[in-house]
Design goal:
With 430 residues, the protein is α/β, with parallel strands linked by helices. Among the domains are: 30 residues, no CATH class; 259 residues, Type I PLP-dependent aspartate aminotransferase-like (Major domain) (Aspartate Aminotransferase, domain 2, 3-Layer(aba) Sandwich), CATH 3.40.640.10. It is 39% helix and 16% strand. It contains 13 helices and 15 strands. The strands form 3 sheets. The protein has a 7-stranded mixed sheet with strand order 4-10-9-8-7-5-6, with helices on both faces. It has a 4-stranded mixed sheet with strand order 1-2-3-13. α4 crosses α10 and α7 runs parallel beside α8. The structure holds pyridoxal-5'-phosphate. Pyridoxal-5'-phosphate (PLP) binds next to α5. The site of pyridoxal-5'-phosphate (PLP) has 17 residues, from α5.
């Protein structure tokens, strides 16, 4: 039995059955450097999924490692009962970067908790438990975020204290409006939003929560300006807009620092997680002060923004900005797109290549239709791994391959990954 087989057998005896590692023969990643990782059996891979869009600046970035080591040697944890230099400096930076006026930020250890805090704030501020979310959304694994998640396989319970309605627009390929052009598509979704507000709510809805590009949903990308149009309708009723930037934040989409910027709006709140800590457990919600400060009583998160995570996140964000990784994301994303578009066009088992910057996906279908083909996606995933490339899977039907390397990826690494991806697709359809 190999090292991986042995670990897998041990995991199955003590971990939940629903924690499914990738591949029939899962691997354990032992170490990483930049965009490359090595498994416990000594094989190396290009990491083009970054632990689900989380390794943002690359593995073992010296500046980030040094900041974590220096902070770990001083103090790991103090809690927000005491002032913390790294937390306050990070808060100043995140508020400034958020684009939200008079911003306040609250840190949590995960994206689910960040969205949970945003939903709680919205319901308190608006005195309503009515929430809108997009079809095909994913907002986390906690009790409240499962309620605003529109994915059967990620929705283990329908129990909730929220009154949730899901509106059209997130997933164009499978939308009844898919054949319309951008403007007509947006108009049709807007009409759906109006219908939902008029027919399914009592009018005083608290908020719409939306991912500018749906992550788990398969990097589904609405037309530019889509959420701007939605927000005009929401504004008429004072309904808040929460932009879930857990996957789209920090320049990953290339053209913009935040996903919401493709829609010419400023959200009332935004949530972030994943990339900000480059692997450290740090996330949070940014809101205008009047919304953030509307929380009555005391609110506290033991690990939220602790000194270790804050110092690491601070070094990570400085590295991102100093090296203009947003510009790199745009250039490398365009490079990958240009390499893969002809491959996708030539294969009628792939419906489309979509996404932005370094957030790109292909959706596998039965040839000539939009009938999902999850087996083809599983095969591509495995064929990539066998050739030294780690990518991700997702989508409503598990038929989407997601590509999201660290934003520091080089042109050579994109070329290498494009070659492997092309071969893996060919092998999967042979
Ligand atoms: C858009 C989005 N929101 C929220 C979450 C939940 O974040 P976490 O897994 O850190 O709780 C995720 C996780 O994948 C996500 O993709």
């Amino acid at each position: 039995m190999g090292v991986h087989d042995d670990l897998h057998a041990r995991a199955r005896t003590v971990m939940p059955s629903w924690l499914n590692p990738y591949y029939t023969n899962p691997i354990a990643i032992d170490r990483g450097e930049g965009c490359r990782v090595w498994d416990l059996e000594g094989n190396s891979y290009l990491d083009f999924f970054g632990g689900v869009l989380t390794t943002m600046c690359g593995h073992a970035v010296p500046e980030v490692v040094e900041a974590i080591q220096a902070q770990a040697a001083k103090v790991l944890h103090t809690s927000t009962l005491y002032l913390s230099e790294p937390l306050i400096e990070l808060s100043e930076m995140v508020c400034e970067l958020s684009g939200i006026p008079d911003a306040r930020v609250f840190f949590t250890p995960s994206g689910s908790e960040a969205n949970d805090a945003a939903l709680m704030l919205a319901t308190i501020y608006r005195r309503s438990n009515q929430i809108l979310a997009m079809r095909n959304s994913y907002h986390g694994r906690s009790f409240s975020t499962v309620a605003v998640t529109s994915h059967k396989s990620w929705s283990p319970t329908s129990l909730t204290g929220l009154q949730v309605n899901f509106v059209q627009g997130g997933y164009r390929l499978r939308s009844p409006f898919r054949d319309l052009d951008d403007d007509a598509y947006t108009a049709a979704c807007l009409q759906d939003l109006t219908d939902v507000l008029d027919m399914m709510t009592s009018g005083d809805v608290a908020a719409l929560i939306a991912e500018p590009i749906q992550g788990v949903g398969g990097f589904t990308t609405p037309p530019d300006g889509f959420f701007g149009s939605m927000k005009k309708t929401l504004d008429n009723d004072g309904i808040l807009f929460i932009s879930d930037e857990v996957q789209t934040g920090w320049g990953r989409t290339g053209e913009h620092f935040w996903g919401y910027q493709a829609h010419d709006i400023i959200p009332d709140m935004l949530t972030f997680a994943k990339g900000v800590g480059n692997g450290l457990a740090i996330a949070g919600v940014v809101a205008r002060a009047e919304i953030m400060n509307s929380m009555p009583g005391v609110h506290f998160s033991t690990f939220g923004g602790n000194p270790l995570n804050s110092a690491g996140a601070l070094a990570n964000l400085k590295y991102l900005l100093d090296n203009d990784l947003q510009a790199n994301s745009l250039a490398r994303g365009e490079q990958f797109h240009a390499r893969m578009q002809p491959v996708v066009d030539a294969n009628d088992g792939i419906a489309e290549l979509r996404g932005r910057g370094l957030m790109l996906a292909i959706e596998t279908v039965q040839p000539g239709s939009i009938e999902p083909a999850p087996g083809a996606a599983t095969s591509i995933l495995q064929n990539c791994r066998d050739r030294g490339l780690l990518v991700g899977k997702g989508g409503l039907y598990g038929n989407v391959i997601r590509v999201a390397p660290p934003l520091s990826v080089s042109a050579e690494e994109i070329d290498e990954a494009s070659d492997i991806f092309t071969e893996a697709i060919a092998a999967s359809y042979a």
